[in-house]
Amino acid sequence: MDPATWQTINRLVEWLDANSTNSHEVTRLLRVLKIQEEAGEVAEAVHGAMGSNPRKGASHTWADVEKELCDVILTSMVSLATINLDAQKLFEHHLNAVAERSLA
Predict the structure, then answer these.
(1) Closest CA to 35 of 71, 88, 2
(2) Backbone phi, then psi, for 52, in 5-degree steps?
(3) Is the dihedral of CA 90, 93, 96, 100 positive or negative?
């Protein structure tokens, strides 16, 4: 992943920290829980794209699903960077380990 991506993530973490009134522990917890909130929005968008709710019909598009998936990724990266100061290294190590065991 491009180092500029993680620089942006770290800037977002700094911005969020500067605007938080919660303790560090509560902030960590809320950022991790935010991932679940965003994942719920993915599910809602999928249901909407497939028109599975008769009351709402086709309320979303697959572009909406893509946007929500990006929000999950972004939120997860922010959460990881909140918990671990070297999130980029941790993520790259984990990605490489998964790729090695899955693609080898």
Answers:
(1) 71
(2) -80, -10
(3) negative
Low-confidence ranges of the chain (pLDDT < 70): none
Please tell me the distance from the alpha carbon of residue 56 to that of residue 2, in angstroms, as a whole number: 39
Place of tokens 């719920």: 40
* pLDDT at res. 65: 98
Within 10 Å of residue 79's Cβ, how many Cβ atoms? 21
Residues 6+ apart with CB under 8 A from 97: none
- Judge contact between 49 and 61, C-beta under 8 A: yes
Of 64, 73, 68, nearest to 1 by C-alpha is 73
DSSP code, position 58: S
Q: Does residue 38 contact residue 75 with C-beta atoms inside 8 Å?
A: yes
Q: Which two tokens stand for residue 100?
A: 């090695």
pLDDT at 54: 86
